[in-house]
Backbone:
């Protein structure tokens, strides 16, 4: 396809911070890639560069954050020539692409949820999308519906299921006075804890535990937006270890 205008829209939800949402490229060096990087949305677009290097068309725009929260997020990309509107969850960003070309030449296949291995360094370093998508619409074509009815030709549908599996994790919400106390493990010389958390508060206690036999304690907290670990040991001279990240 060689297009002057494009409208691409879809909804997604995922708990992964990396993954290609869709990708298309052409023989002239044109490409469009929408992907998650560090839980942010990144759109890479090139309407063409020339071999002399005087016209450099690569354009990259980043929007959003914390998009790996397993909630539905909606994306609309509207392109007219070099003018782009990128809308994420009703927040619109307008920009113009670099270069001098207006048409997007995509004469290879367009892929959703990943990109084909082309041998280029860019293709093997990118992860496939892992999560759910719905309402995929590409220039007026309802891709989700066509894929479900097997009306996309030619198409390669790899390991898709037309349902959205919910994760088995159970979140716990804490207010200013709540806490969760669990039994310790006596006669164990290993202390191990892992968890995911999300908060708007810059300060707060995350974990506290006393060691047995009055040997000390461990405390994990948020202090001015940084996570700190404090280990107090009563039997050694250097009796406090502080780690901040």
Residues:
């Amino acid at each position: 396809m060689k297009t002057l205008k494009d409208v691409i829209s879809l909804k997604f939800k995922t708990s992964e911070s990396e993954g290609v949402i869709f990708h298309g490229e052409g023989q002239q060096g044109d490409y469009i890639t929408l992907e998650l990087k560090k839980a942010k949305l990144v759109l890479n677009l090139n309407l063409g560069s020339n071999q002399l290097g005087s016209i450099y068309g690569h354009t990259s725009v980043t929007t959003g954050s914390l998009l790996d929260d397993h909630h539905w997020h909606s994306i609309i990309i509207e392109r007219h020539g070099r003018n782009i509107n990128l809308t994420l969850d009703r927040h619109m960003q307008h920009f113009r692409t670099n270069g001098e070309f207006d048409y997007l030449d995509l004469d290879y296949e367009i892929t959703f949820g990943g990109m084909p291995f082309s041998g280029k360094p860019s293709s093997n370093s990118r992860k496939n999308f892992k999560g759910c998508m719905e309402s995929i619409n590409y220039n007026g074509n309802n891709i989700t519906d066509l894929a479900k009815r097997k009306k996309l030709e030619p198409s390669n549908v790899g390991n898709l299921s037309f349902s959205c599996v919910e994760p088995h994790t159970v979140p716990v919400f804490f207010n200013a006075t709540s806490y969760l106390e669990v039994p310790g493990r006596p006669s164990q010389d290993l202390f191990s804890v892992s968890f995911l958390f999300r908060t708007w508060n810059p300060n707060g206690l995350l974990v506290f535990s006393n060691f047995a036999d009055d040997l000390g304690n461990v405390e994990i907290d948020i202090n001015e937006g940084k996570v700190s670990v404090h280990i107090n040991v009563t039997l050694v001279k250097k009796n406090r270890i502080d780690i901040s990240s």
Observations:
- Residues 65 and 125 are 21 Å apart (CA to CA).
- The mean pLDDT is 87.
